[in-house]
Amino acid sequence: MLQNWFIMLPELLLFLFLPISRLVDTYRANKTSRTFSTLAQIFLLGTILCSVVFYNKNVFPDFWHNTAFTTLLKNIAYFLALLWFYLSSKWFLNKNRPSYKFYLICFFMLLALNFIASATSLIVLGIAIPLVCISYYKLILRHWDFEKVKKVSGLYAVAGIFFCCLLWGGIWIIYKQIGALGYAEISRYYTGANSINIYGYIAVTMIISCIIFLLALAPFHLWYINFISHGVLPVCGFISLVPPLIYMCGLINLVKLCFPAFADFLVPLFNIFGFISLFIGALSANYESDIRRLFSFLSVYAMGFAFASLNDFSDTSIIYLLIFMISFLSSLTGAYTVFLGFKSKSEYLSEFSGISGFSHLRPYMSAALLIFIFSFMGLVPTAGFFAGLPIIDGLIANASWIKIIVLFTGVIFAINACIHIIRNIWFQNPTTKFDRADKAIYICLLFNVIFVFMILLNPDALVGRLIYVVGDIK
């Protein structure tokens, strides 16, 4: 019995932050945003450590199952959360706003994401995904101007309820057909069936559509764009950097372990959503004058690129997909770190009219942002080039010429959007005086730039690890 409690330490630490932070908020007299940031970092470091120690130990394998694969992706997401919690504390200190509820909601969401990544039963997804949707709703309300986010939060609530109902409807159809909700039982039933009836396809589509919504693939991306447009910077950074890799982990497990019989149906479906996201993201980015919104559309484009390039759910395709995701998120993390440097008179700017000529005043941050933009564009010598090259090679090997043409067309539009950023920041005269940036921003940018280059200089370290963990999906 005691051993089970030790095995569940990662989940327990995420949960224990909730009551302990509440006690600190209630009874600690001298508390600042740094208080909760430090507390969050301590609990998250403990979670990462315990996840590594008990990476293949499980207490309830019928509901969730930890493997090397899930542990790696969860820990990358935890590390991104750890970094962002540290940087977000600077925002809360500068704005002199309480941070307790932000960190509380984020940990609640991390707990739910933890179960999504390791789920082996549709029951877990049916509970955890609505909890994530509730967390999104609460996060957007962290804005001090309630009227500004009232409409956005209401629209998201309607969309979240709709897709959660689709999820529950799909789960109910499968349960009525099979009488079980475990991944293994569902896989055996559909794999052994001579033919799959239309209700099976409808149920799978309903369940997958909910994850597509969470991944902000077009045309279900507007909630994400609205969050970036109206949310405060800590919220925008957290929802952009942390959840996507967890959703990808949960989706891969769902297809490989639960719906392998539907793989030939799902790959074209993902391709369609990928193509739509690719073009909507890249085209929309070209018409934005707000750098945060521009990067949010580039995020939609990047997710579209990943799904549009899928040929199957083989181990090789999954490795290519994950390499691209890790490269994309590392570049996006760097961009959001630079956003914290767009500070003038204690206000964080995002409109190009306010940050034009930024490179003349902050050359080091601007140089780092340029590297991240190059990585987004897939240019040498950045991680984006290494991440995109094997995808294109795989498409060439499979003679997927139409996909290649579509991808390159989307890339051209995305590059044009990135040139718009470069033109405003590097080739315009300064219009604003910026506040002195915190040293923490420069330190984080340095390590991020090193990581972006290290992926390219030593790709075997990443690829070898992914080959090992992807082979562990079973």
Please sum up the structure shown.
With 474 residues, this protein is an all-alpha fold.
What does this structure look like?
With 474 residues, the protein is mainly α. 77% of the residues lie in helices and 1% in strands. The chain is built from 22 helices and 2 strands. A two-stranded antiparallel sheet has the order 1-2. The longest helix is centred in the middle third of the chain and has 33 residues, at 146-178. The model has no long low-confidence stretch (mean pLDDT 88).
Provide key terms for this protein:
474 residues; mainly alpha; 2 domains; two-stranded antiparallel sheet; 22 helices
Task: Please give the structural blueprint.
Blueprint: H1 2-7, H2 9-27, H3 33-53, H4 68-95, H5 100-118, H6 122-140, H7 146-178, H8 183-192, H9 198-214, H10 222-230, H11 233-241, H12 243-258, H13 263-285, H14 291-308, H15 315-339, E1 343-344, E2 347-348, H16 352-355, H17 358-361, H18 363-377, H19 383-397, H20 401-426, H21 439-457, H22 459-470
Antiparallel strand pairs: 1-2
Helix pairs in contact: 2-3, 2-5, 3-4, 4-5, 4-11, 4-12, 4-22, 5-6, 5-12, 6-7, 7-9, 7-10, 10-14, 11-15, 12-15, 13-14, 13-20, 14-15, 14-20, 15-18, 15-19, 15-21, 15-22, 18-20, 18-21, 19-21
